[in-house]
Specification:
By secondary structure, the protein is an alpha/beta fold. Helix content is 38%, strand content 14%. The strands form 3 sheets. It has a 7-stranded mixed β-sheet with strand order 2-8-7-6-5-3-4, with helices on both faces.
Length: 382
């Protein structure tokens, strides 16, 4: 395959050690060089100036909200709350909504625990959870078929962490709108890898960590809540930062912030904001459509190479519209444990998920890295 635009620049951004074959962005991604430099500069400023230039730090935080709003298609950066992780964001939603005994929540049977446990924890309020089966010819229809007059919320991952199944969010969102049901999207396996259109999918909530496809650090995440719903949610954590007049420390009367900042009770993760903003600048400079196209190119290349190996079974969807950056496979002759250990011994950084071995390249992943991964699998099964 020929060189891609800016390939030299991308290699410079990701100077990964030559001993490893990194295909684990669905777990934890390496940082771009610009992110490491941004963190280094932030640390340097702390050493020499402390918080003397705190206004510049706030600019990083403001820029990050704008970038995240752009990434999902939100109308205003004020609708973006910064959280520690996806689980925290989902918990804000789960314990901010008013529930009634008999309410139902629909998820899927392939969800990561974050998007299952939080809803199951509402059982003491009389809320039940129903899991739609995704191993069908029409997974969206399976989800929609679970909706009943008691369904209050649907919460699904945009891309399933195990198999990599990419759902048609607009179809699910439309069904939710027609039935007056809230729609929550755990977008951790798609933001930074795929285009996301908030208006098209009609999600009321979007949550995602920054440390996977967004190429940022752990400890900082996006929470979007549509303004109409936000105003009806309870706030369960209080502090100086979530009030309307944050910074006016002598004021004794206070009100909850009108913006999404109401879900941020205390001091922000400035270091995380600096890092994630730098990472997102690379993705947004490249263009999410271009990022998505490059990932699809790499998944197709891996799939073709792996399918040529004896006894290799692809567990991820093969239809382009149903896949993102995850390719999961197994082998009929070699167990997943042995295959994973053999790949690890050859420097392949991947994961054991979804009943097989999960490869997850990003848009910058060199093509020769994919060749090395395919060769490593070939050696492991022979």
């Amino acid at each position: 395959m020929g060189p891609l635009p800016h390939e030299t620049d991308l290699n410079d951004e990701f100077p990964l050690d030559a001993s490893i074959v990194y295909l684990n962005h669905a777990a934890v991604a390496p940082w771009p060089k610009r992110t490491a430099l941004a963190v280094e500069n932030f640390a340097h400023e702390n050493i020499h100036f402390g918080a003397a230039h705190y206004d510049r730090w706030l600019k990083h935080e403001s820029d990050l909200r704008k970038q995240l709003a752009q990434l999902i298609g939100a109308e205003h950066p004020a609708d973006i709350a910064l959280q520690k992780n996806t689980s925290e964001g989902l918990s804000v939603i789960a314990y901010g909504l008013p529930w009634h005994a008999g309410d139902e929540i629909v998820i899927t049977d392939q969800e990561f625990p974050s998007n299952r446990i939080v809803w199951e924890s509402l059982a003491h309020r009389g809320v039940s959870v129903k899991a739609a089966a995704l191993c069908t010819d029409d997974p969206e229809a399976s989800i929609i078929a679970c909706l009943t007059p008691s369904t209050r919320l649907v919460s699904v991952s945009s891309v399933q962490y195990g198999t990599g199944l990419k759902l048609d969010l607009s179809r699910i969102g439309q069904a939710c709108r027609q039935n007056n049901i809230l729609f929550c999207v755990d977008a951790i396996q798609s933001l930074g890898a795929c285009a996301f259109d908030l208006a098209q999918c009609q999600a009321d909530f979007v949550v995602a960590d920054g440390h996977k496809w967004m190429l940022g650090p752990e400890g900082i995440a996006l929470l979007y809540v549509t303004p109409a719903v936000r105003e009806k949610m309870a706030v369960n954590e209080y502090g100086w930062h979530m009030v309307e007049n944050a910074g006016d420390y002598n004021r004794t009367d206070w009100t909850i912030a009108r913006s999404a900042r109401r879900f941020e009770c205390g001091s922000p993760n400035m270091l995380g904001a600096v890092a994630l903003s730098a990472s997102l600048s690379l993705l947004l400079d490249t263009g999410i459509d271009a990022v998505q196209a490059r990932i699809e190119q790499r998944i197709s290349y891996l799939m073709k190479g792996l399918q040529a190996l004896p006894g290799l079974r692809i567990l991820s969807p093969t239809a382009p519209e149903q896949r993102a950056g995850i390719l999961t496979f197994n082998n009929e002759r070699v167990s997943n444990d042995l295959l994973f250990s053999a790949l690890k011994a050859q420097g392949v950084v991947c994961a054991q998920r979804g009943g097989g071995i999960r490869f997850s390249p990003h848009f910058y992943t060199p093509m020769d890295t994919l060749d090395r991964a395919i060769d490593a699998v070939a050696r492991a099964i022979t």
